[in-house]
Amino acid sequence: MRALAPAVLAALAFAGCQRETRDFRTDPPVLAALDDVAPLPNRIGGAPPDVYVALGQPYQANAYALSEGKRLYDGMNCKGCHADGGGGTGPALLDGWWRYGPDIVSLYVTLRDGRPRGMPSYADKLNSEQLWQVAAYVQTIGSYRAATAATSRNDQMQSRPSENRGPARAPLTEPPSR
Amino acid sequence: MSAPAILPGELDRGAERAILHRQLERTWATPAGFWGALTTVDHKTIGLRYIVTAFGFLALGGVLALAMRWQLARPESRVLSADLYNQAFTVHGANMMFLFAVPVMEAMAVYLVPLMIGTRNIAFPRLNAFSYWIYLFGGILLWAAFALQIGPDVGWFAYVPLSGPQYSSGKRADIWAQMITFTEIAALAIAVEIVVTVFKQRAPGMSLDRIPLFVWGALVTSFLVMLAMPAIMIASTSLILDRLVGTHFFNPTEGGDVLLWQHLFWFFGHPEVYIIFLPATGMVSSMLPTFARRPVFGYLPLVLSIVAIGILSFGLWVHHMFTTGLPRLGESFFTASSMAIAVPAGVQIFCWLATLWDGRPVWRTPLLFIAAFIVTFVLGGLTGVMVASVPLDLQVHDTYFVVAHFHYVLIGGAVFPLLGAIYYWYPKMTGRMLSERLGRWVVGLIFVGFHLTFFPMHFLGLQGMPRRVYTYQPEMGWGAANLFVSLSSILLAAGFALFFLDVIRSARRGPVAGDNPWDASTLEWATTSPPPPYNFARIPVVTSANPLWSEREALPVVTGLRVDRREIVISSVSDATPQARESSPRDSIWPLVTAVAASVMLIASIFTPWAVVWGAIPVAAALIGWFWPKGLPEDEA
């Protein structure tokens, strides 16, 4: 019992740190190393950079990183094509179907290098950490499963329930018509 | 030797003094041990606990203040990261306002009011126990969150949209908002108890014009709490709903209103300042006669000033919002009302000066603190009149000028009298005196350290240094003044450290005080130090505003209360003529159980709204246990 209490506290502290850490200045070498993804030859899926694993995959489970991703989603006008996740010119991000796979390395490569049929590259607009933040946000936008960290609604007109109210919908059983 | 058995319904008439004491002891005492500590409903135990806890939070908040001063001592310093600094100033502010200043003032009232008005326990003693537990759990919530790096980082007033769902991700702002809920519940509970105690439990003969001034302060403060706190409860609940459930109270594009937050917050926040300040003025008014050796000058103007400040405090919240843009009429009205409150404050100052002028002052430590309070508070009041005018406020809003101003009024206006009050009432609470020699050092260090720390901040503010910045550039030219301020804060901290040292040391080793070491005039000094569990063996009858000075030989008393159960005297509101005997509840574990259940519900509701539904069930069960008749003598009509 004596040993248990500090252990539980330490675990809580660790969980708290992971979810809520805010690092406003990432070191340049880390930024460079974060771009070191190894996608498969067909550019779908692959291995994340070593530093990403070493940092403990800090983007999907960190509320601050997700909210930065959401801020950049607005700022880079992702809404212009993907709307509020519902899709328009570009595919929907809420429906559970991913043209290039659901894993975060694919999303990172999509954002960094662009994809055929209209998805531009953002490598010259965002640094590697920002790309990871957007990728993490886009991955959780549909909130198919309960997560320890999620963004909340924006102070804007609402087109759907906010991400932290998920699981918002069951994954689709049929692929979208397009 | 055991006391003779107590017969059912036995009255205190005719019993020998020693036998009566033993009978009352058996009826009123809290059993020793851990279980007794958890179940006690004695207002003295709970009040003391509250005071010690609040001073613990003061020390923690002071450590944060020192860390911030360390960070700001040099430009571009890297002691605290930006994120940690944001958490530090938010937790410092929220801690000092919600976990120290308000609770400690209410705790002093919990301890002193029943003694000062001559009754045996506070009204609703179990609610009192519940209040303490809720307050403790709320404080632990805030500090545990800070220790886990999820401390709130949005400022102690958590303005939306910064604290709203879009810009404050994670649970940090939710922890701030829920901590508010804890402290509001605790404060509202005490407010209700104090009002009922003061109105219905005063000793026979203590008509309204004989109530000690600290009790007046506590009474008006309690009404302020009841009228002001619902506003912040609505605000913080709306914020949590916005963040967790996706409502739109503060989202302008969906019909909400950002400015609504500021109105709701400051409708509470400004009376909050007086919730802290009014008990402090009451303490001054109650301590001053003892050291001036004459009754206080202008009892009636002092009471009316307290009431006037209480009423006016609800009419000036908008002066915190001058920079948000207001109609001209609004600006003028709130400037005028802000300046108007200086009038009753000034009346009080002049009454105190007149009391000292006409008396033969005995310069003991509490009086030294009162003198430090008068000087410092007048300075803070003057800068208050300055920032009440819109043109000046537009320039210094959100600068260190405002930081200097509110530390002058809060530390100068409330903490100095409070420290004096601790020196004054410590003998009553513990039976031992604090050291007079150390006390003079404490006053000197704190007074000098305070002014050296905070006075230069006025200039920093006028030079444009904003609040809540974690660092500044060397070219700004603020470095020297900031270094001076940071070094001075060590002096201030040393004063507080010496105070804590004195308090801890004297609890064991201080000279024994006796019943009335200061030869004071109010009822709390008529009983032993520390008071017995039943406060007074026989309830005193009050014949003047200074009962212990007008009845030097022996106080007249009333008899006829039962000794086999806890019984108090109920008296009329204005004249305090005795009306009835009323039972007072015994110890109970249910307040603690209810507080635990409520805490689980409130903390879980940060994570899911369903916690309110499922968490309400244990709360309801605990309340049923609380109110279930136990067949005790106290349950009889």
Number of helices of chain A: 7
Could you say which structural class the secondary elements and strand pairing of chain A correspond to? mainly alpha
Q: SSE order of chain B, as H and E? A: HHHHHHHHHHHHHHHHHEEHH
**So what's the overall shape of chain A?**
globular
- What is the beta-strand fraction of chain A? under 5%
Multimeric state: heterodimer
What's the N-to-C terminus distance of chain A?
58 Å
Q: Number of DSSP helices of chain B? A: 19
The total of beta strands of chain A comes to: 2
Provide the CATH topology of chain A.
Answer: Cytochrome Bc1 Complex, Chain D, domain 2
Based on the model shown, name its key terms.
heterodimer, A: 178 residues, mainly alpha, Cytochrome Bc1 Complex, Chain D, domain 2, two-stranded antiparallel ribbon, 7 helices, 38% helix, globular, B: 637 residues, two-stranded antiparallel sheet
What's a quick, concise take on this entry?
Chain A has helices spanning 4-20, 28-33, 50-54, 63-75, 79-82, 104-113, 128-140, and strands at residues 38-39, 46-47.
Fold and architecture overview:
The complex is a heterodimer of chains A (178) and B (637). With 178 residues, chain A is mainly α. Helices cover 38% and strands 2% of the residues of chain A. Chain A has one domain (30-165): Cytochrome c-like domain (Cytochrome Bc1 Complex, Chain D, domain 2, Orthogonal Bundle). Chain A has 7 helices and 2 strands; from the N terminus they run ααββααααα. The radius of gyration of chain A is 17 Å and the shape is globular. Chain B is built from 19 helices and 2 strands. Chain B has helices at 17-28, 34-39, 43-72, 82-116, 125-147, 172-200, 213-244, 258-292, 299-312, 328-340, 342-358, 365-388, 390-396, 400-430, 436-462, 479-509, 547-550, 590-604, 610-627; strands at 567-571, 578-583. A two-stranded antiparallel sheet of chain B has the order 1-2. In chain B, α18 runs antiparallel to α19. The two termini of chain B are 33 Å apart. The A-B interface holds A 12-13, 16-17, 19-24, 63-64, 66-67, 149, 151-158, 161-162, 164-165 and B 81-83, 145, 147-150, 161, 164-167, 169-172, 242-246, 248, 250-254.
